Task: inverse folding
C-alpha cells in the first residue's frame, strides 16, 4: 500500500499546480515554525508611541494600533490558524471515521446515525460554529471543537459509503470464511478503499477550517485577543482602514494564499486518486 | 404757528408709531426665518445599541442621551455646570437644609396632552429613589416627599443634604431625575418601562432594539422661559424627526456621515482628525471635558483586597503609553489625577501627588510583594464592543507582563460582562469609562464606599470612606466642604479602590448643514436646524 | 448558558428581587425540561415565543427581517450562478487550454477569499472612495422600490464571488464528464455543431449535479449572509441571529435555528423537484 501511495505521489508532484501549492505550503510551514528566527519582534509587545507606521525596512508590514509589528503578527496568526486547521482535520477524521464505521458496518445503528448526521448537516457549518463558539466563550480550543463538530458528519458519510460499497464484496466474504477477524477486515480493506476520499476531503476541510477560523475570529468568538489571528487582525484593522490600509491587506492576502494552496492540493489529490469525487464541501 | 405745531405733532406721532411698529416687523421677519428652520429629519449614528430605554433601570448613559429629548428633569444643567430650574419654576431650602420646597411650572404638557402636576412628580420621584442608582444613594438620608398642592412639592430629609439639586440634575450616567407621567409609573412600577410619556420636545415613536430609535416633534411642547444653555432653558424642536441608528463599527459611522447617510456620527477614530477638519462638509465636535478611563478592581478578592496591591497597579502603568493605545491622537487625551477637571470648583492640583503618573515598575513589584501577591494570573474582564475599553485591556496586559504579572484577558459582549462583573469572584480588573462632568463630588459616593457598585469593598478603609462622604454631605460651607473633598482625594490615592487612568475627549462629527449644534457632553438635537 | 439576559435588561443596579421577578415573568426560572416541552408544544402551534430584548414575538422579528436576507441570497445565487456556469462552460469547452487554466484559477480564488475581507475591501473602494454605493443600511422594497438594490449590490457581490467559484468548478467537471458519455460521441459523429451539442445535451445532463451542489451550498450561502449582514448593517435574519447569539436572546436563537432548518428543507425539496425537469430519466412515481 505504501508503495502504491509513493507511486501516486510521484505522478502528483509532476503536476504544475500541485507543485506550486506544495512549495507555498512548505514555505509557509517554514515561516511559521521558525518565526523566532525570522523576525525579532514579538506579536504581543506593545509600543504604542510607534503606532500605525507604514511598511518600512524595520517593520516589513508596518505596525498596528499598538505599535506591534504586523509581519510578526501575521506569521504567528498564521501559525494559530494552521494549528486550528490541523487539529480540526485530525479530530474530524477520528470522529467521522468512528461514526462512519459504526454506521457502515452495523446496519442497525445506521439509520439512527444517518438521521442525526442529516440533522447536523442541515445547518451551515459556520452557523453551528458561531453558535457553539459564542456559547462557550470563544478561544482556540473551543473553536477547534466547534468546527470539528460541524465538519465531521461529511467525513462520517464518506467513510460510511466506502464501507457500504465494499461490505458485500466477495473478498470480504472469503476473508471472513478464512477466519480473519472483523477488525482486520476493517483496517485492511476498508481503509485502503476510503483513504483517497478521506484525504481529499481532509485537504478541503483544512482550507475551510482556515476560512472559518478567520471568520470566527473576525466576529470576536475565535482566537481571543491579544493572541494574533488573521481574522482578528482584519476586524481590528477596520477602524484604521483609511489611515493604515496595510493592516487589513496583509492578513487577508495571507489567508488567501494558505487557503488557495490547500485547495490546490485537494484538487490535485482528487484528480489523481479519484476523479469522480466532486463535492468539496 | 398752529400749523407748524400740528405738523410737528403729526410727524412726532408718525415717528412714535413707526418706532412701535418696526420691532413688530422685525419680529415678523424673524418669525419667518424661524419658520423656515422647522422641518427635516436628522439621522444619528450611535456607537452602541441599548438594552432598553428606561434610564432608572440602567447605568448606560446612552439611554439618557437619547431620552433627554423625551423626558425632562425638575432641574437641568447649563453650559456653566449650574443646575437651573427646568420643570421646576423655583425652589427654596429651609429647615437648615433639610427641606426643599419646589414650585412647579404651570401648564407643562405631557405627550398625551395631560398637564404635569405634583402627582406625576411624586410618583416619578418615588420610583427614582427606589430604582435609580443615584436615587438609591439619596434614599437612606431621605425622609419623605410631601404634596403641598398641585404645583408644589416638599422634599424632606432626615439630615441636611447639600448636594440634592445637583444630584437631581446630574448629567452623570443615568442619574438624572426625570418626570414621567404617573400612569406609566403605575403601569410599570419598578419594571423596565417600555411605553414613554414625557414632557420633552420630542415624543417616542418607535424602537427596534438592534436597529434604531425614532422620535418626532411634540407640537404642544411647553418650553422653559429661561434662556437656552445646554440642557437648561428654552428648547425649540426645529427638526421634525430624530432617528438614532445603532452602528457599532466606527468606520461605517464615519463613511455614513461623509456620504450623507448620517448627519451626526458619534465617537469616531481620532486618527483622521486632520482630514475631518479639512473637509468643509463636516464639523468635528470635540467635547471637553468629557470622559475618564477607569481602572476598577475587585476589592473583595486577592490580591486586590490588599491596598498595597492596588497601589502597585498605579505605579505599574505607563499612562502615556496607555493614552496612545486607547485613544491615539494625543490631542484627544490628557493625564489628570484629579477627579474634577481644572476650572471646576472641586478641582485639586495636588491630588495623586507622587503616585499618579509615576511609572515605577520596581516600586510596583515591591508593593505587590508587600501585599503578598502569589503570582496567580489576574483576570481582566472587559467589553469587546467598546473600543477604548478593549484596547485598554490589551495594552494593560502587555504592561503588566513587564513587571512579571500574568494576565488573563476575558473580553466579552456586553451582557456577559455585565453579568460577570456583578459576581463576587472570577474577575480582578475591569475597565470602564466615567463621565468627567460631575457637578458635585457627593456623586462619587454612588460607587465609592462599602459594597458600592461592583467593587466588593468592605473593610475598615471602606468604612472610613463612608464616613468622609457622610461629613461631605452635611457640610454646606464651601471652604469647609472643599477640605473634606481634599481629604477624599487623599484617601482615594492611599486606598485606591479604583483609579482614573486618563481623561479623554470623544470626537464626534456633525454635518455642516446642521446649525447651532452645541458641544455638550451628551449630544442633543433641539435648538438645531438644517440650513 | 453563560451570560445573563436578565441582568442586561435590568442593568447594573438590579437588586436580587428584581432579577428574580423578571426571571419569573420571562419563565426562565422553571426547570429546563419544563421549558423545553413548553417550547416544543408552542412550536407546533406556530408560536415561537417572544424575544427577550426586542419587544416583539420571535416570529414577527424573523418575518420582518426576511426580505433583505432573501434578496441578498437570491442575488448572490443568481450572480454567482450565472458567472459560475459561464466560467465553467468556458473552462470545459477550452479544456487544457489557457482559458481553462485561467478559469480554474479564478474559481479557486473565489473559494479561497474570505467573504468578510472581500466585503471590507469592496466597501473601501466602492463606497468610501468612489461613493457609488452606500456604506451600510437598508430600506425595504415597499418604501424605496428599486433603489433598495443599491444597498444590496456590494453584499451580493461579496457572496457571489465564492458561489461563482463553487459553481464554476462543478459545472466544469460535470460538463467534462458528460463529454465522455456515449450519446455525446454519437451526436458529435453526426456532425452537429459543437456549441449546440454543449448547450443542448451536455448542459442539461450536467445540470443535475450542478443543481445538487447549488442546493447543498445554499446552506453555506445562508451562513455567509449572516456575517455579511453584520458588516453592512443590513437588518436581515442573519443580523438578528448574530445579535441574538451575542446577547443570549435564547428564544430568537431557537427561532432562527428552526428558520434555517426550514429553509434548508425547502431548498432541497425544490432541488429534488428540479431533477425531473432537467433529466427526464428521473421520474417520480
Result:
Amino acid at each position: 500500500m505504501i508503495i502504491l501511495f509513493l507511486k501516486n505521489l510521484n505522478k502528483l508532484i509532476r503536476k504544475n499546480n500541485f507543485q506550486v501549492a506544495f512549495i507555498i505550503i512548505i514555505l509557509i510551514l517554514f515561516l511559521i515554525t521558525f518565526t523566532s528566527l525570522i523576525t525579532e519582534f514579538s506579536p504581543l509587545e506593545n509600543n504604542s508611541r510607534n503606532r500605525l507606521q507604514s511598511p518600512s525596512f524595520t517593520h516589513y508590514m508596518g505596525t498596528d494600533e499598538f505599535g506591534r509589528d504586523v509581519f510578526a503578527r501575521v506569521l504567528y496568526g498564521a501559525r494559530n490558524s494552521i494549528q486550528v486547521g490541523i487539529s480540526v482535520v485530525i479530530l474530524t477524521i477520528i470522529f467521522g471515521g468512528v461514526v462512519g464505521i459504526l454506521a457502515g458496518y452495523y446496519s442497525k445503528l445506521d439509520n439512527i446515525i444517518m438521521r442525526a448526521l442529516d440533522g447536523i448537516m442541515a445547518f451551515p457549518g459556520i452557523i453551528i460554529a458561531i453558535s457553539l463558539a459564542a456559547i462557550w466563550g470563544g478561544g482556540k480550543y473551543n473553536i477547534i471543537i466547534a468546527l470539528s463538530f460541524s465538519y465531521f458528519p461529511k467525513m462520517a458519510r464518506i467513510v460510511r459509503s466506502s464501507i457500504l460499497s465494499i461490505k458485500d464484496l466477495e473478498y470480504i466474504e472469503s476473508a471472513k470464511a478464512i477466519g480473519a477477524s472483523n477488525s482486520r477486515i476493517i483496517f485492511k480493506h476498508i481503509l485502503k478503499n476510503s483513504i483517497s476520499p478521506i484525504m481529499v476531503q481532509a485537504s478541503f476541510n483544512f482550507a475551510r477550517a482556515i476560512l472559518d477560523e478567520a471568520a470566527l475570529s473576525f466576529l470576536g468568538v475565535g482566537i481571543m485577543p491579544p493572541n494574533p489571528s488573521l481574522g482578528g487582525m482584519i476586524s481590528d484593522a477596520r477602524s484604521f482602514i483609511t489611515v493604515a490600509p496595510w493592516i487589513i491587506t496583509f492578513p487577508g492576502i495571507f489567508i488567501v494564499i494558505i487557503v488557495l494552496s490547500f485547495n490546490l492540493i485537494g484538487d490535485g489529490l482528487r484528480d489523481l486518486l479519484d476523479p469522480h469525487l466532486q463535492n468539496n464541501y | 404757528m398752529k400749523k407748524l405745531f400740528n405738523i410737528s405733532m403729526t410727524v412726532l406721532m408718525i415717528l412714535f408709531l413707526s418706532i412701535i411698529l418696526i420691532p413688530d416687523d422685525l419680529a415678523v421677519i424673524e418669525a419667518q426665518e424661524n419658520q423656515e428652520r422647522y422641518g427635516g429629519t436628522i439621522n444619528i449614528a450611535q456607537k452602541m445599541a441599548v438594552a432598553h430605554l428606561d434610564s432608572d433601570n440602567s447605568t448606560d448613559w446612552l439611554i439618557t442621551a437619547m431620552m433627554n429629548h423625551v423626558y425632562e428633569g425638575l432641574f437641568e444643567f447649563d453650559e456653566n455646570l449650574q443646575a437651573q430650574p427646568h420643570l421646576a419654576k423655583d425652589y427654596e431650602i429651609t429647615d437648615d437644609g433639610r427641606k426643599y420646597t419646589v414650585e412647579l411650572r404651570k401648564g407643562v404638557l405631557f405627550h398625551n396632552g395631560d398637564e404635569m402636576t405634583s402627582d406625576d412628580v411624586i410618583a416619578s420621584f418615588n420610583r427614582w429613589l427606589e430604582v435609580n442608582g443615584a436615587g438609591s444613594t439619596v434614599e437612606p438620608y431621605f425622609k419623605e416627599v410631601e404634596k403641598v398642592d398641585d404645583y408644589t412639592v416638599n422634599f424632606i430629609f432626615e439630615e441636611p443634604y447639600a448636594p440634592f439639586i445637583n444630584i437631581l440634575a446630574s448629567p452623570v450616567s443615568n442619574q438624572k431625575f426625570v418626570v414621567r407621567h404617573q400612569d406609566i409609573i403605575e403601569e410599570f412600577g419598578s419594571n423596565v418601562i417600555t411605553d414613554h410619556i414625557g414632557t420633552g420636545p420630542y415624543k417616542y415613536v418607535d424602537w427596534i432594539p438592534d436597529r434604531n430609535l425614532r422620535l418626532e416633534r411634540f407640537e404642544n411642547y411647553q418650553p422653559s422661559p429661561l434662556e437656552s444653555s445646554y440642557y437648561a432653558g428654552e428648547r425649540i424642536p426645529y427638526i421634525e424627526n430624530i432617528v438614532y441608528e445603532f452602528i457599532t463599527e466606527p468606520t461605517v459611522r464615519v463613511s455614513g456621515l461623509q456620504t450623507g447617510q448620517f448627519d451626526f456620527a458619534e465617537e469616531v477614530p481620532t486618527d483622521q482628525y486632520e482630514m475631518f477638519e479639512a473637509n468643509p462638509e463636516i464639523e468635528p465636535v470635540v467635547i471637553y471635558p468629557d470622559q475618564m478611563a477607569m481602572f476598577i478592581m475587585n476589592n473583595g478578592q486577592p490580591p486586590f483586597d490588599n491596598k498595597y496591591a492596588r497601589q502597585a497597579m498605579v505605579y505599574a502603568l505607563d499612562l502615556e503609553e496607555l493614552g496612545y493605545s486607547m485613544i491615539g491622537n494625543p490631542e484627544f487625551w490628557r493625564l489628570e489625577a484629579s477627579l474634577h477637571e481644572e476650572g471646576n470648583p472641586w478641582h485639586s492640583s495636588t491630588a495623586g501627588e507622587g503616585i499618579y503618573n509615576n511609572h515605577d515598575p520596581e516600586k510596583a513589584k515591591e508593593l505587590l510583594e508587600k501585599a503578598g501577591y502569589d503570582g496567580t494570573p489576574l483576570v481582566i474582564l472587559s467589553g469587546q464592543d467598546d473600543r477604548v475599553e478593549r484596547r485598554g485591556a490589551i495594552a494593560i496586559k502587555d504592561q503588566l507582563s513587564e513587571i512579571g504579572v500574568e494576565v488573563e484577558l476575558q473580553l466579552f459582549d456586553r451582557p456577559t460582562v455585565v453579568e460577570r462583573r456583578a459576581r463576587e469572584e472570577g474577575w480582578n480588573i475591569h475597565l470602564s469609562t466615567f463621565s468627567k462632568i460631575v457637578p458635585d463630588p457627593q456623586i462619587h459616593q454612588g460607587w465609592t464606599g462599602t459594597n458600592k457598585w461592583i467593587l466588593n469593598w468592605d473593610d475598615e478603609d471602606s468604612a472610613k470612606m463612608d464616613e468622609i462622604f457622610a461629613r461631605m454631605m452635611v457640610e454646606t460651607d464651601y471652604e469647609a466642604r472643599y477640605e473634606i473633598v481634599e481629604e477624599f482625594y487623599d484617601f482615594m490615592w492611599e486606598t485606591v479602590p479604583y483609579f482614573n487612568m486618563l481623561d479623554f475627549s470623544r470626537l464626534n462629527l456633525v454635518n455642516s448643514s446642521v446649525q447651532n449644534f452645541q458641544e455638550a457632553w451628551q449630544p442633543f438635537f433641539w435648538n438645531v436646524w438644517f440650513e | 448558558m453563560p451570560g445573563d439576559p436578565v441582568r442586561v435588561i435590568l442593568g447594573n443596579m438590579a437588586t436580587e428581587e428584581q432579577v428574580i421577578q423578571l426571571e419569573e415573568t420571562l419563565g426562565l426560572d422553571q426547570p429546563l425540561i419544563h421549558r423545553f416541552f413548553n417550547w416544543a408544544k408552542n412550536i407546533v402551534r406556530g408560536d415561537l415565543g417572544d424575544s427577550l430584548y426586542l419587544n416583539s414575538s420571535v416570529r414577527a422579528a424573523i418575518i420582518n427581517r426576511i426580505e433583505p436576507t432573501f434578496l441578498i441570497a437570491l442575488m448572490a445565487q443568481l450572480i454567482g450562478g450565472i458567472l459560475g456556469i459561464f466560467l465553467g462552460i468556458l473552462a470545459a469547452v477550452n479544456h487544457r487550454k489557457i482559458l481553462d487554466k485561467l478559469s480554474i484559477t479564478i474559481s479557486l480564488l473565489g473559494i479561497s477569499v474570505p467573504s468578510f475581507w472581500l466585503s471590507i475591501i469592496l466597501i473601501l473602494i466602492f463606497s468610501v472612495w468612489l461613493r457609488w454605493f452606500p456604506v451600510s443600511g437598508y430600506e425595504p422594497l415597499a418604501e424605496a422600490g428599486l433603489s433598495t438594490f443599491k444597498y444590496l449590490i456590494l453584499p451580493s457581490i461579496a457572496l457571489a464571488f465564492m458561489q461563482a467559484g463553487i459553481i464554476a468548478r462543478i459545472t466544469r467537471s460535470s460538463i467534462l464528464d458528460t463529454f465522455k458519455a456515449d450519446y455525446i460521441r454519437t451526436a458529435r459523429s453526426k456532425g452537429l455543431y459543437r456549441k449546440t451539442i454543449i448547450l443542448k445535451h451536455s448542459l442539461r445532463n450536467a445540470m443535475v449535479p450542478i443543481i445538487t451542489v447549488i442546493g447543498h451550498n445554499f446552506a453555506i450561502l445562508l451562513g455567509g449572509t449572516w456575517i455579511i449582514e453584520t458588516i453592512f448593517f443590513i437588518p436581515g435574519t442573519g443580523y438578528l441571529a448574530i445579535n441574538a447569539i451575542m446577547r443570549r436572546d435564547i428564544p430568537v436563537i431557537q427561532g432562527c435555528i428552526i428558520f434555517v432548518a426550514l429553509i434548508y428543507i425547502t431548498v432541497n425539496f425544490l432541488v429534488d423537484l428540479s431533477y425531473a425537469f432537467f433529466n427526464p430519466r428521473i421520474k417520480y412515481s
